[in-house]
Amino acid sequence: MPAALGDWSRLVFGDFLHQLSRVGFVIGVDQYLRLQRLLELAGDSCTPADLKTLLCPLFATSERQQKLFCATFDAWYPQFRDPDAPPPPVFPPPHEEQRGSPETLGFRRWPYLLAAACFVIAVFFGTYVNRHRGSASNVQLPAAGVVKPSLARVLSPPYPVTAPWI
Amino acid sequence: MTPSNFELYTGNGKTLRDRGLELPEVPRSNRLDAPEYYLAEKGLRDAVNVANALGQPLLVTGEPGTGKTQLAASIAYELNLPEPLVFQAKTTSAAKDLFYRYDSLRHFHDAQFRQVPVAIDEYITYDALGLAILLSLPPEAADPYLPERFRGKGPTRSVVLIDEIDKAPRDLPNDILTEIERAEFTVKEVGRTFSAGAGFRPVVVLTSNSEKNLPDAFLRCCVFYHIPFPDPQRLKEIVQLRVSFNGNFSPAALDHALSHFMEIRELALSKKPATAECLAWLQILDRMDVDVGKLQPGQAEVLAFTYCILAKNTEDLGRMRRALTAPQGT
């Protein structure tokens, strides 16, 4: 687990890194050091607008994070250019997104509710059918040792059966 | 190519000679694979430069056919480095395979049956990252171990492509992290350690089709970029750069074909065709003189037939063909 950064305000791009951490990025000391190194190397040759595509490969580790990084940067960038601009909107952290809102949870719960309802109907139907079968037909089992003629033919074939191993 | 000599194989036992035809040579556009025609977008360019500046491996993901593998050749070409050294990851790959392989079975066989004792180095074959590290050394240090075609080329930096790393066992990425960072490996069988020469660290490019999640520790040590599918304008630029059309395929026909291709990508397909499929499809349309916007009688069937280049399974092919025959607006 990388060491997490605590006080954002003292860091270069601290407010932006804070935004990133709020939307779910885990920013460790290693990444921050790489950020500083990159700024030292590319600082003179890149414009603020270039920062998005320069910094994104350092922090994103998946396609989803790449999109989230770009959205966070786009929201933060006007404030970076003009500190009097309104603060950027806060995107919901991904873990909250995964947990889901109550509405989402209700939506996701429906397969389980449907399965439970099917189970209750099946149990009810099975009980109903069994009860009706029991009362409607009193089928008597044949007495032990009584074999139907057709079955007797099968059990005692007309040809002699010899077992070679006897 | 006219439709008559396009249909070379008829599947009814008639030979080309019977029909008075000859098997023509298939012209392959060298632009399709040539690194000088590779067009990288700004995000990808920056990711390559960041990886290079920080000396970190670059991990590239994206739909199959978006140019992940060709990126390595493009980097090598533009940085004036030799052709990339490629390691194709397999489900059986081990971390050591990236550097060298030791053929113990052949060594054992020879030890049993050959009269003359043989050196163990004869049974060691260096692979992509191992070769790159050897190439970073002066010739006197590296040449005794290098295959003949690499001798005398060092010291130089190299581009190493580790293709489809998500196919490899889960432990492999973590196992190679230290070696990539240090640019160093040991051949345990002979107890020899090689370290990359100062200033000649290899440029490592890894590709993944995201079929399997890679370990977090590994991801954090890489510079990451996901190549998105290009927008229509960019796709057109790529096509114009990489495909040389014959005179009959007009710019308007190209526009029609590209907008048709983008419509196909919007269908609910299980595997969407990517840039590579688009380039191949356009070449076929060009050879068969099919303008998607102005279909001649009988060409709708030909167009439907060309979808087999774009579709990756029967269901997708069916969807594309149904979309073609469906009335407009449905």
Features:
heterodimer, A: 166 residues, 0% strand, B: 330 residues, alpha/beta, five-stranded parallel sheet, two-stranded antiparallel sheet, 12% strand
Task: Walk me through what this model shows.
The complex is a heterodimer of chains A (166) and B (330). Chain A is an all-alpha fold. Chain A has seven helices and no strands. Chain A has helices at residues 14-22, 29-42, 51-59, 63-81, 94-99, 102-136, 149-155. Chain A starts with 13 loop residues before the first helix and ends in an 11-residue tail after the last helix. Chain B is an alpha/beta fold and 330 residues long. The longest helix of chain B has 16 residues, at 251-266. Chain B is globular, with a radius of gyration of 24 Å. Chains A and B meet through α2 and α3 of A and α2, α8 and β9 of B.
List how many beta strands of chain A DSSP finds.
0
Q: What is the overall pLDDT average of chain B?
A: 89
Could you name the ranges of chain A where pLDDT drops below 50 across 5 or more consecutive residues?
95-107, 144-156
Low-confidence sequence ranges of chain B: none
Q: Tell me the overall shape of chain A.
A: rod-shaped
Count of separate DSSP helical elements of chain B: 13
H-E order of chain B:
HHEHEEHEHHEHEEEHEHHHHH
**Overall mean pLDDT of chain A:** 71
The fraction of residues in strands of chain B falls at 5-15%
Question: Helicity range of the residues of chain B?
Answer: 25-40%
Radius of gyration of chain B: 24 Å
Order of adjacent strands in the largest pleated sheet of chain B: 2-5-8-1-9
Specify the number of helices of chain A.
Answer: 7
Helicity of chain A, as a percent range: 55-70%
Taking the alpha carbons of the first and last residues of chain A, their distance comes to 74 Å
C-alpha-based Rg of chain A, rounded:
37 Å
Biggest sheet descriptor of chain A: none
